[in-house]
What we know:
Elements: E1 3-7, H1 12-23, E2 27-32, E3 50-54, E4 70-75, H2 83-88, H3 90-113, E5 117-123, H4 151-170, E6 174-179, E7 182-183, E8 196-198, E9 201-203, H5 208-218, E10 225-228, E11 234-235, E12 238-239, H6 240-252, E13 259-263, E14 269-270, H7 271-283, E15 290-293, H8 308-314, H9 322-336
Parallel strand pairs: 1-2, 1-4, 2-3, 4-5, 5-6, 6-13, 7-12, 10-15
Antiparallel strand pairs: 8-9, 11-14
Helix pairs in contact: 1-6, 3-4, 5-7, 5-9, 7-9
Domain NAD-dependent epimerase/dehydratase: 5-263
Organism: marine sediment metagenome
Protein name: NAD-dependent epimerase/dehydratase domain-containing protein
Amino acid sequence: xxxxxxxxxxxxxxxxxxxxxxxxxxxxxxxxxxxxxxxxxxxxxxxxxxxxxxxxxxxxxxxxxxxxxxxxxxxxxxxxxxxxxxxxxxxxxxxxxxxxxxxxxxxxxxxxxxxxxxxxxxxxxxxxxxxxxxxxxxxxxxxxxxxxxxxxxxxxxxxxxxxxxxxxxxxxxxxxxxxxxxxxxxxxxxxxxxxxxxxxxxxxxxxxxxxxxxxxxxxxxxxxxxxxxxxxxxxxxxxxxxxxxxxxxxxxxxxxxxxxxxxxxxxxxxxxxxxxxxxxxxxxxxxxxxxxxxxxxxxxxxxxxxxxxxxxxxxxxxxxxxxxxxxxxxxxxxxxxxx
Length: 339
């Protein structure tokens, strides 16, 4: 039985990866300190092949994991919390995430030196392309576009250079997965996020999909739906199950050794289009009227990837369309907030 360690196993994307690997016969060791959501229950928690260590990855060396031999370490652990975090925690996103990365890679390198690890898989972010003007954006554009302006985007780019450095100095093989706008169930509110309101309307600042769903569920059909910015911002919404499947396929493939992959739906959708889609699912034929609010500084206008590399090298394409994904997310938001 193959064994994988998932850092940040109880997080949004991490939990999807754990479910995917367990369903495919892996033994999974999770490491998480519940710093983002607090103590949360995940579907994989009680699986017989899952072991959770409630621990801060920064202090990974104090864990007694010497008897484990991992095929893969999947590095998901990070301080992350949506666009509000980009502004509220500009320094911490650099400092804390650098400590997480250094601790993770120090540990992974030691495992590799003792033949206890085959490869590290790094979960990066589409924000490494924050300053690109090339669309759809291919993987190699990270070498050509200006560096990200946000500290979060810059740090995610740094995570990819951790992979490069660990391979060049120690020979540690890597695969970089760069998800674009993950959607799915389980994206709750961060414990240290500020509560933001517009008038009597509460806004969720974790990600745009839960925010639009929550507002659509809690305002009157006759009210305007507040959105940040013009609504013309372009995103590619990608289900967590697709991202998890891509991680498994890539980490098992020799074609993905020391390579990076954009993982995303190939469908561009504007925020305005998404808002209208969600509104119609909740309010039917009632006209969706938008109210445009001042955007955040780091609200990137276009994030649109080229996904041909994943398709051509690994034979993988994301299967779940946003319309198929939204009903389960709407239902989850209803239950989570007791609406």
